[in-house]
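Standup notes
- DV: blocked on the single-chain target, sequence here:
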Amino acid sequence: MSTTTRAKLLDAALATLRTQGIAGVSARTIATTAGVNQALVFYHFGSVDQLLAEACEAGSTERVAHYRERFAAVTTLGELLELGRAIHDEEQESGNIAVLAQLLAGSQTDAKLAPATATGLNLWVVELELTLARVLRETPLAELVDVSGLARSVAAAFIGLELYEGVDADGAAKALDSLEQLAVLVSVLDEMGPLVRRAVRGRLRKAAARG
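- DV (later): unblocked, structure below
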């Protein structure tokens, strides 16, 4: 029964964020959504902040696991971008993008929520890093790109686009289209044979050295 109550409260915390925003989150609203006494929030988690922190991590863990097999099936940057669009559509429809926006907003001023949100986002970064390392292994970028840094850049860009779409959907779509063009460019370079790839690597190394 205790485990069930904890699970209900974790789900209710995310549902409350989804429907009422960070400003509407309280022990009472979460407990009402869960259908339990609000005292149970403090019994199981100690505080609303701690409940939100655990709900953030639990929600991210569940969503990343949901997509893990699809990440593992990706073999090109183009396929990764296709998956990114699919994730966007599914997460938008489920309301999880709204939850993320609220968690990011709350993290600006909440010392407990910020690290929990970062932990949740890092679960996505890990999947991206594994996928990018595999996809880029045989490309001209393999020796020059910091895959860990690139994974974080991609995650940050994706989050930014998700939030940007709320105010400029056309602009966000164009940004995604430009990323697809970059994926096509890498694919074309990969098809040009070893001599061209070697030349590109050489130019990239020189550019990196100058930087």
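- Follow-up: DSSP finds ten helices and no strands in the chain.
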